[in-house]
Design a protein that fits this description.
Elements (H helix, E strand, L loop, with lengths): L2 H14 L12 H19 L4 E4 L18 H5 L3 E5 L14 H15 L4 E7 L3 H14 L2 E5 L31 E3 L9 H9 L5 E4 L2 E2 L2 E2 L2 H7 L9 E7 L2 E3 L17 E4 L6 E4 L4 H7 L6 H7 L4 E5 L4 H6 L1
Parallel strand pairs: 1-13, 2-3, 3-4, 5-6, 6-9, 9-13
Antiparallel strand pairs: 7-8, 10-12, 11-12
Length: 324
């Protein structure tokens, strides 16, 4: 089905099926995250109608209850092209360990619901033994998901195994639906400089790249990104950019030295698991203005660099506020 026609149908349906407000908690953190993603998508498409939107994790947002049998949030679904899912089969409790079966089953059901509604599924498992990496690829393929087995949680390298991308091909990849594999590499610490980083990726045949806008504190140029859009075998691929919207990172260009928890008011506590990452009131206008809307915003820099899309992290930030 034509994607634009499908979106039109979903938007019409959204007018018929509205979620009932939670009378006990009128502030809906999940609704605010959906709204944020939709705003990012709408703004991006004003500049590039083909810009790809991929939220990572938080698949519970696709229904009103967070369960597979809940009412589909059709407007949200209509604004995203794919959904990223970490730890589906490996890494949920610890790297290289199988994810508990009940968690896997819950995540699979939601991911299949995405797949059945024209939203592709990209999964990242964290495992380093060859046996488990291959098992991850095979299990994801059985579900129809596009997958990457990361042998380092830091996403700082191109894995040696398998020796070539799973489902390697010489097809031109112009849409997310055509991708059969991807590389998730956002930490350049194992590379000596920008040239080595770009050169290493250029020698691969991954269909889709997820990389960072910044490389050794420098923004990638449009020419550098354009060079990455060609696989080693000469066919085309997609290059998307990682961007966290649920936490502020104190190593980003927008960070101000005077900031601390509560100052500005939307800056929350530091993530105890990731030093330098701070929870944010992601619905606050000042935070949104950092993310999108003007030439110095994060998203505008990504669009100006001519990435094919954006990979949005910390979509599940609503869980932090629901637990408070």
């Amino acid at each position: 089905m034509n994607k634009k026609f499908y979106i039109l149908i979903l938007v019409i349906l959204s007018l018929c099926f509205k979620c009932k407000p939670d009378e006990e908690n009128p502030f809906d953190y999940r609704h605010e995250m959906r709204k944020f993603v939709i705003e990012i998508a709408d703004y991006s498409h004003l500049i590039n109608n083909n810009f790809i939107i991929i939220p990572q994790n938080g698949q519970e947002l696709i229904t009103n209850t967070g369960q597979p049998d809940g009412e589909l949030q059709v407007d949200y679904m209509a604004h995203i092209d794919a959904t990223g899912r970490e730890d589906l089969f490996y890494g949920y409790n610890a790297d290289n360990r199988p994810t508990p079966a009940n968690e896997t089953e819950h995540m699979i059901q939601l991911c299949i619901l995405c797949k059945n509604n024209n939203v592709e599924v990209l999964t990242t498992d964290y495992c380093h033994s060859e046996e488990k990496m291959l098992d991850s690829y095979n299990k994801n393929q059985q579900q129809g998901f596009i997958s990457f087995a990361a042998n380092k949680r830091e996403l700082s390298n191109i894995p040696d195994f398998p020796s070539k991308p799973f489902n390697e091909n010489n097809q031109n990849i112009n849409t997310i639906e055509q991708a059969k594999n991807f590389l998730y590499l956002i930490n350049p610490e194992e590379f000596s400089d920008k040239s080595e980083f770009i050169g290493a990726i250029s020698q691969t045949n991954y269909d889709l790249l997820i990389i960072d806008l910044f490389l050794f504190d420098e923004i990638l140029t449009t020419n550098e990104i354009e060079s990455l859009k060609t696989k080693q075998n000469g066919s085309k691929r997609l290059v998307t950019c990682y961007m966290s919207i649920g936490e502020a990172e104190n190593y980003r260009y927008y960070w101000q030295k005077s900031w601390k928890t509560g100052e500005p008011e939307w800056l929350q506590t530091e993530n105890k698991n990731w030093e330098g990452n701070f929870k944010v009131s992601y619905w606050h206008p000042e935070w949104k203005a950092i993310i999108y809307g003007h030439k110095d915003s994060y998203l505008d820099k990504i669009l100006a660099a001519k990435f094919d899309g954006v990979y949005l992290d910390l979509i599940d930030a609503y869980e932090y506020f629901e637990m408070q």
